[in-house]
Amino acid sequence: MYGQWQSQGFSGLFPMGYGDLNTPETRDKMSASVAVYRNIYTEDRFRQSYGTEDKPRGGGQRFREKIAERCRCSREACLHLLRERVPIFNWLPKYRLKKWILGDTIAGLTVGILHIPQGMAFALLTSVAPIYGLYTSFFPVVLYMLFGTGRHVSTGTFAVVSLMTGSVVEQLVPTPLQLNSSSPEAADFEAQRIGVASAVALLSGIMMLCMFGLQLGFLSTYLSEPIVKAFTSAAAFHVTISQLQSMLGLRLPRHTGPFSLFKTLASVIENLPHTNMAELLTSLVCLAILVPVKEVNMRFRQHLRTPIPVEILTVIIATGVAYASSLDSNYDVQIVGHIPAGFPSPRMPALHKLPEVAGDTVAITFVGYAVSVSLAMIYADKHGYSIQPNQELLAHGISNTVSSLFTCFPSSATLATTNILESSGGFTQLSGLFTSLVVLIVLLLIGPLFYFLPKAVLACINVTSLRQMFLQFQDLPDLWRVSKIDFVSLSVLPLICVNLPLLGKWFSDQPL
C-alpha cells in the first residue's frame, strides 16, 4: 500500500516525524499508525439515510404522483420558468454595467446603421417596398433580445430568406406590365404583396413554435458547418444574379419556379443592349467604393474599434447626388420613392393565402432556423457559453409570429451583421436595444429623406454583402486534408442547391 501511495505522489501528505520514507523503520512505524475506518451500510440504514425507506420497491412513485409533483405551482417554480423562457430576466440582473455597456453600445449602434441600407435592399429581394425592410429590421431585433439565448446574434433581414420569400410573393402576386407607382392600383398591389410576405412570416413563426412544443431543437446537432456553407454559397449566386437587372437598369419580369436562376441570367444577357448607362455608371461607382472599403474593414478589423459604415455613407451620398441631378427624371433612373414616416399599425396578414404558401414556408422555416442556430452555436463556442436550441426555436417563432402582425416578412439571424456585432465588441443581447433605437429613429424621422435613393445602390449593397459567402470556397483545401466528406459537401452541394426554388417546389407538391 505504501508503494502505491508513494507512486501517486502522496508521500508529502504524511505528518513530520517519519523521517525518510524509504527506510524499513519508517515503514514499520507507518504500518502501526495508519488505519482506515469506514461506515458499513446495511440496506435498512441506507434507506433511512437517503429517504427511500417508504418508497415502493417496484417502480418508485406512481405516475399520478409524478405528474402532480411536476404540475405543482409555487413562486419558485414560476420564477424559474420565467427566467428559462424569457432569458432577459436571467442575464439582465447579472449585467456588468461598467465592463459591458460601452461594447454593447458601440456594437449596437454600428449594426443599427448597417440595418438601414440592408433592410431596404433585402426588401427588394422580397419584392416588397423598402419600408417593410425597415420594419423587419426593428421588431425581430427587440423580440430576440427578450427571448434569445445567443449573445452575439443579430436578427433581421437575411438575403437567403428574403430571396425565397420573394419567389413566393412573385408567384402569387406577379408584377403587372404597366403600373403607375402613384396610382391607387399600385397601393393595392403593394398591400397584396406584403400581405403574402407577412402570411409566410406568420406561418413560419407558428411552425417554429410547434417545433418548440415538440422539443425538436436537437435537430440542430445534425447541421454540419460544410452543409450550411454550401447552402449559403448557392444562395449567394441566386442573389447576385437576381440583382443584375437592377444594377444594369433593366426592366425585366422576375422569373420564378424551377431553373429560375438560368432563366434570369439568360434574360439579362438577352437584354444587355437596353442597359441604362446612368444606372450602370452608378453601380460601377458604388462597387468601386464598397468593395475596397469592405476589404479594409475585413483585413484591419483587429485594429478598427468599429468598421467603417460604408453602406450608410454610400446611401447618403447617392441620395444627395440623385436629388441634385434629378436622375429619375433626366436619366430614367429607378429610385426608391416614398418612404412613409411613423410606426406601422397592426394589420392581419393575408390569411386566405396560408394554404398556398404552406409548402414553400416549410423550406423557408428550415433555412431560417438552420442559419440562425448555426450562427448562434459558432459564436457561443468561440466565447465559451452555451445556447439552448429549443429556446432559439421559441425566440425566432415569437419574432416571426408577432412581427407578421406589423407588416414584416420572415426574419432570421444574419451573417454580415452578426459578424460585425461580434467584431465591434458586443457582449450581450442588450446591443439589440441600441440597434433597434437607430432603426426607430429612421422610421420616425429620417425615412422620407431617402426618396431619391437609386435602387441600383441597394442592389450593389446586396451583392457586396454576400462577399463572405463566396469566400467560403477558400476552405476547400483545408477540408480536403481534414475530411473528404466535408470537402464533397462544400464543393458539390452548391451545384445541387443552386436551384433554390426547387426546394420550395418540392415541399409545395407534398400533400398536407
Automatic annotation (TrEMBL):
Cellular localization per UniProt: Membrane
Pfam families with a match to the protein in the record: Sulfate_transp
GO CC terms in record: membrane
Record keywords: Membrane, Transmembrane, Transmembrane helix
Residue ranges constituting the SLC26A/SulP transporter domain according to the UniProt record: 102-489
Predominant location category: membrane
Biological process annotations from GO: transmembrane transport
Residues passing through the membrane, by range: 100-116, 122-146, 153-174, 194-218, 304-324, 361-381, 393-413, 433-453
Membrane topology category: Multi-pass membrane protein
InterPro entries registered for this protein in UniProt: SLC26A/SulP_dom, SLC26A/SulP_fam
Source taxon at top rank: Eukaryota
PANTHER family for the chain: SULFATE TRANSPORTER
Protein name, entry field: Solute carrier family 26 member 10
Organism whose genome encodes this protein: Salmo trutta
Organism phylogeny: Eukaryota, Metazoa, Chordata, Craniata, Vertebrata
